[in-house]
Amino acid sequence: MKTIFEKIRDGEIPADVIYRDEQCFAFRDISPQAPVHILIVPNKPIPRVGEAEPGDQALLGHLLLTAAKIASDLGLSENGFRVVINNGPHGGETVPHLHVHLLGGRQLTWPPG
Question: Is the whole model's pTM more than 0.90, yes or no?
Fold first, then answer.
């Protein structure tokens, strides 16, 4: 069964997709936790970062570089942004498909919650 992210990737569920390449896609979160909240999702369905394999190393790096590019494109680089990857229920994971949260547009506090 497909995850919600696979359905978005395949155009079965609408989303505000702002970026797409051969390895990943990015879209605006429907429940944003900051003025800018983008999800960057690999096309390959890896359940969580804790289950990534050595062969996924380049893809994982690509996700982070893509987050930085999108942050720059959205004007977040000067004041800063946060990149978050949740892993498992206690880590805040709600969809079993690895994804990177890009948050910005306001002062973010620590600890995150």
Answer: yes
